[in-house]
Design brief:
80% helix; mainly alpha; single chain; 74 residues
């Protein structure tokens, strides 16, 4: 690993991006789910579905962010 890849500011930026994906997806899932629950009057259905859907979106975003750092072992 080269010296420029070990920059602590780059690591902090990566952690910040990952945490924003996770927190943002949870907040989006909760807000959209509760809004749809209130709209259609089917409480916790859309909250649960929306939360899991947005968690999947957030996990995919995190994977795409860290993909360049995983390396090619194959």
């Amino acid at each position: 690993m080269s010296k420029e890849n070990r920059n602590p500011w780059r690591a902090m930026a990566l952690v910040s991006i990952i945490s924003s994906y996770i927190v943002g997806s949870v907040l989006a899932g909760v807000f959209i789910g509760t809004w749809l629950d209130d709209l259609f009057n089917v409480k916790p259905l859309f909250l649960i579905v929306s939360l899991f859907t947005w968690l999947g979106v957030g996990a995919y975003g995190v994977y795409k962010v860290i993909e360049p750092f995983l390396g090619d072992d194959g």
